[in-house]
Amino acid sequence: MQRVSAEMPIGIFDSGIGGLTVMKEITRLLPEEDIIYLGDTARVPYGIRSPETVRKYSLENAYFLMSRGIKILVIACNTSSSVSLDLLSEKLPVPVTGVVGPGARAAASATKLKRVAVIGTETTINSRAYERAIKEIDDSISVTGVACPLFVPLIEEGWTEGEVVRLTAEKYLSPVRYNGVDCLVLGCTHYPIIKDVIEDAVKIRLIDSAAETAKEVRRVLKDAGMLRRSRADVSREFFVTDSPGKFVSAGERFLGRKILNISRINPEKTLQVYSG
Ligand code: DGL
After folding, report:
1. What pLDDT is stored for residue 1 in this prediction?
2. Structural domains in the chain plus CATH codes
3. 93 C-alpha to center of ligand 1: Å?
4. Mapping DSSP to helix (H, G, I), strand (E, B) and coil, where does residue 117 land?
5. Which candidate, 258, 274, 276, places its Cα nearest to that of 70?
6. DSSP state of 227
7. In b/e form, how buried is each residue of 106-132, taking b as 16+ CB within 10 angstroms?
8. Using a 6 Å cutoff on CB, does residue 15 contact ligand 1?
9. For residues 138 and 114, is the Cβ–Cβ distance under 8 A?
10. What is the DSSP pairing of strand 115-120 with strand 183-187?
């Protein structure tokens, strides 16, 4: 196995394009770092699948990124972070950061009324990972979880504004509005895209775990002496598990920049190579 060094890239994966919201925050905070991003577009969405299936996919994705030589793995998917962080942390020889811990910490310090709501996919909400992480910090905080399964397909379809997404948000979020909570965690990588719509529906403080995760990545790399020194040439490499077309067009919208260096891979094959 390659020795881990500060010159290696940060590896990021998500079930698809949503994790680009996390990548965007990481590149904003750490512009000198090389990044390899894997979007498991052939098997998206994860949010409706069982924890066992999500763990299997996540391990395959992680092993693919390890095979490219990364210094830290970022699970830029709430569903995967909710159910596979422990497994990946145990299996990989590099630090692993998920999005749940950073989001939970931000929520716990933001709530004044000690009442937090979390929205996410069905698998994320059913796992109660956010609730556990918030209560570990402060057991007196009450946490309400609301699954919003229609948000991901609407966002993927580009319906990020207008009546359909507004009414959907109002319907999903009315329990939040009438529950006396003072902060809402966007527990899904897609949701920052419709932040304005969600904000309008709840009118309380929103916690975006993407920005918090980027801070966590910087902290972990700094503590390990693994931050890369500033350099002129920075590489951004993208991999997908299905044809790249839709990823590129929607991804450029998410990321706010061109996606040039992209290839299609089969992560199941890497698992065989990596685990012998
Ligand atoms: N990336 C997923 C998450 O953050 C949303 C999309 C999916 O269901 O795969 O939970």
Report:
1. 57
2. 10-98+212-273 (3.40.50.1860), 100-209 (3.40.50.1860)
3. 25
4. strand
5. 274
6. P
7. bbbebbeeebbbbbbbebbbbbebbbe
8. yes
9. yes
10. parallel
Q: In whole angstroms, how far apart are CA 182 and each of 91, 113, 179, 203?
A: 37, 6, 9, 9
Q: Tell me: the pLDDT tens digits for 49-93?
A: 999 999 999 999 999 999 999 999 999 999 999 999 999 999 999
Residues 6 or more apart in contact with residue 163 via CB below 8 angstroms: none
Which residues are within 8 A (CB) of 22 and not within 5 positions of it... i.e. 6 or more apart? Answer: 12, 14, 74, 76, 99, 189, 209, 210, 213, 214
Diameter of the chain by CA atoms?
A: 54
Instruction: Give phi and psi for 261, each to the nearest 5.
Output: -95, 85
CA of 17 to the centre of ligand 1 (A): 9
Gap from CA of 190 to ligand 1 centroid (Å) = 7
User: Catalytic amino acids?
Assistant: 77, 188
